[in-house]
Amino acid sequence: MYEGNSLLSVFVIVVGLVLYGLAYYGYVKWFDKNVIQSDPKRTTPARTYMDGVEFFPTNRYVLFGFQWKSIAALGPVLGPILAIQWGWLPAMLWILFGNIFIGWIHDYTSMMASVRSEGSSFGPITYELISPRARTILLSYILFYLILILSSFTNTVAGTFASFPVSPIPVLVVTIVGMLSGYMVYKFKVNIIYTTVFAIVVMAIGIWLGMLFPITVPKEFALDFWMFWTLLFCFVGAVLPIWVFIQPINYMSFYLVYAAVIGIIGGIFAGFPDFARVAFTTFFDPKVTASGPLWPMMFVVIACGAISGWHSLIGSSVSSKQLDAEQDAHFIGGGAMLAEGILALVALTTVAILTPAAVAGVAPAGIFIKGGSVLLGYLGLPAAVGSAYLSVVIIVLAITIMHIALRISRLALAELAGPRFGGLFKNIYLSAIVVSAIVYVVTSPRFGATFGYIWGTFGGANQLMAGMALMIATLWLSKNKRPTTYTAVPMIFMLVTTISALIYLANSGIQLYVADPTKIGAGIAAFINVLLLILAFFMCYEGAKAFQKIRAAAK
Hints:
- This protein is mainly alpha-helical.
- It contains 20 helices and no strands.
- The protein has one domain (about 10-35, about 45-555): Hydantoin permease.
């Protein structure tokens, strides 16, 4: 089944572990000490404004698990699998060096900018650092960007539910045990270790029950059915207090997902599988690289693992409000991002060991499940069990991000449209329903866009969000008279790359809709693509003016 060079799978993982370890104990800690200058005596917003809903101090290991699971979604899994079209080597290099020099610093500075701004999200921070107009531009961008995240993930989750009938019951069990764990820890004060062990055992039982009682839905309406239940799950997460739903589910899901990562790594070292893919294919050949040229497209196809704008929203909108002490921020912000890089390298390995013929016609999520099952098989895990387990992992990776994305998007919609419609969209239920309806139209197999286009557009928007987050971080550092080179150089690279990618995608999207006007969702996706480009140009203009004012004031 396998061809190619021996030991490459082991090489990729070992290099990743070594370089990320050196980055954390070297660059991360140096940056924390010399640039951010975290202060262990400084009271964090979690303690100052503790309300038990948004603000509450959290154990550093619990918050690390929450942060990692809240940033590690489908991006670091599906992105590297799709990037194999250019070869495994370009993808590996971007995952490694993008993360080491750009990714973690983006996550950490975003979190600390919020912590030092009394837990404010990017909206108020942008208002203060740039202008009121820039705040409106950024909130508009975030709203439409989140619609793309929800659309791309809804497609994958629904497809996985439909293709793997063993997955629904385990996902339901994860949801229930996550919520129960939250009550055990916060209401009944049960020790976190006992709670975690209990949850892990129950989740394992859930996978067994799923294999015993698969849920099959008729093929003709399976995708619509599972889209509805996926969006309903997200709706619940978007309206309930964080400690009730989002935080405990994401924390417990961390163990489910990272156990798979460790297991696959163990399988790599147990089986020493060869790579069946070449290191490099071509820079651009439409017959080989369907997504477009290596630059700029690979840098947005790998939407996470190297860097992700989504992480800045988690760090500034959620995790910053739970940080117990400033000295934990580099561990949670920087450390979690480097750990996500390992997931991306693992995903790259799962596809690299499979021949093109073995995955012909298989969706990217299915490729991860297939390759991962092979690797878990080296540890003695039966293929059926491995496939069931990894199908749950894929779904959990997505939905644990989606309920946060819907939560942030309904907040953005409320801030943008609330005053203009008599406060109508300040209703948390209505705003969440409106966003969910748009997502369904964009995603629906009846009139939605293709997965490939949605993913590319999401990736471009995601990485452009990262560029703008680095812009905000650079302005914040400049205002506080701290070195800006470490964020400014990555900012320039990300803005140039992602704007170029979105221009390329905008042209492709318009052509898709013109070819088939019945695909309303494709038209909406293309419109969002163009709109995000316009908003980004205005944001860059406002940011440049703000930087000039800050520099002038400093003289």
